[in-house]
Amino acid sequence: MTIAADGPTVPLHEPDENADFKVFEELESEVRMYCRKFPVVFERAKGAELYTEDGRTFLDFFCGAGTLNYGHNNDFIKGRLAEYLAADGITHGLDMYTVAKRQFLTAFAEVVLRPRGLDYKVQFVGPTGTDSVEAALKLARKATGRSGVIAFTGAYHGMSRGSLAVTGSRRARRAGGVSGQDVTFVPYEDGPQGGFDSLGYIERLLADPSSGVEVPAAVIVEPMQMEGGVYPASAEWLRGLRELTERHGILLILDEIQSGCGRTGTFFCFEESGITPDIVTLSKSIGGYGLPLSLTLFRRDLDVWEPGEHTGTFRGNQLAFVAATAACELWRQDTFHAGLAAASARLDRFRTELATVDPALKVRGRGMALGIDTAGAGGAERADRVQRYAFEHGLIVELCGRHDEVIKLLPPLTIDTARFDRGLDVLRQALLAP
Fold first, then answer.
1. Helical axes 417-432 vs 334-357, angle rounded to 10°
2. Do the Cβ atoms of 238 and 273 come closer than 8 Å?
3. Strand-strand pairing, 398-400 and 406-409
4. Judging by DSSP bridges, how do beta strands 57-60 and 120-126 pair with one another?
């Protein structure tokens, strides 16, 4: 059994009696989670499919929680990695200058930053997303001389101390022993309780000298909350938040760790709004191949670091640089853009089709991210049944939301039509099943 974030006890899938889990159960911590939901031993993966050691095949609509946007073992990226390894390319370089880093920075600037008018410095901060958030918060406080941060209900920013402090889940914060000191939580634009005038509320807090809230160093926000239940922020709301923060001299941090790298149809989720954040956190699929890489992007004038003030042993993952450079090159290809647009349109049609499956379901998302909310249509128990049915019929999907009541779909951006339709058919049948 496991406990959903702040929610009820949710039963897990029964393990495969024929699989050998002994070494995992004997040596690995009880903290493990995904393996309990998907109790098989995976051996290989390709594209949108995972293969178990006993010969079964699963379609992957989870993709490492958004880490494998380009699919498993993408041939183009794999080829670049193989060439680099065959040439004895350096694999670990701290923050030293390397050819691999130069090639990534050049490609990232040419493909991602300059076409979007983003004049950012790039900080390599360590292997995972929480490291990017930690650096962003530390930099915001150093640059402004203020300590407070405004975050949003439903937010998920990571599991280390600073990022936990701006994460909404009580359960996660309790486990980390983190208090809410210096962090003010405000309801997100949308959520399980409905819409909220969060911008008006923030404005009121800042305007009232007796509100108890000082002008903060930063506001941190996900342009689409993923773990919180797949809630996309509207372009109008993000523009309003940008105007508010600029007017009060507050830095705006956009967390694009799970929503970025094309997941919502554009490279950054915030692009639709037309805003320019002060700081952007980026990880997961920026590594291209599932390799650990994490960046913090920020305005040039915010680069107030002294050398060595923020370090990390694995901030120079050279293989990730190679894979990330290859991924950037995919974004130069018309065929990649056409495929992403077609896949996004297919998922949007499926969103419409679900209205005929069950009008009580609420469906949210953008691009290649979709959340099916069962809160008013059977709740967490139904979501769990859907996940179980999907798994039993060869499809991996994850749950999210306050009580694991939202079925989250994150297929590879590069998935072919046949496999995409097959996975959606399984999900449709799972929703129709009693």
1. 20
2. yes
3. antiparallel
4. unpaired
Cβ–Cβ < 8 Å for 245, 220: no
CA atoms within 13 A on the CB side of 267: 21
Report whether 23 contacts 361 (CB < 8 A): no
Which tokens in the block code for residue 370? 């979709």
- Between CA 240 and CA 237 the distance in angstroms is 5
pLDDT of res. 176: 82
Three-state SS at 294: strand
pLDDT at res. 186: 97
| Cα gap 52→59, rounded to integer Å | 11
For the record, the structure tokens of 120 come out as: 């950012």
User: 329: number of CA atoms within 13 Å, CB side?
Assistant: 15
Amino acid 213: pLDDT: 95
Count how many Cα atoms sit within 13 Å of the Cα of residue 53 in the half-sphere of its side chain.
10
Exposed/middle/buried for residue 139 (C-beta within 10 Å: 0-12, 13-18, 19+): buried
- Contact between 358 and 377 under an 8 Å Cβ cutoff? The reply is yes
Partners of 149 in the beta sheet? 183, 218
pTM attached to this predicted model: 0.94
Residues of the chain below pLDDT 50: 1-11
Return all residues near 29 (Cβ < 8 A) that are at least 6 apart: none
Close Cβ partners of 232 (under 8 Å, ≥ 6 residues apart): 223, 224, 225, 264, 269, 364, 365, 366
**What tens digit of pLDDT does each residue of 251-310 get?**
999 999 999 999 999 999 999 999 999 999 999 999 999 999 999 999 999 999 999 999
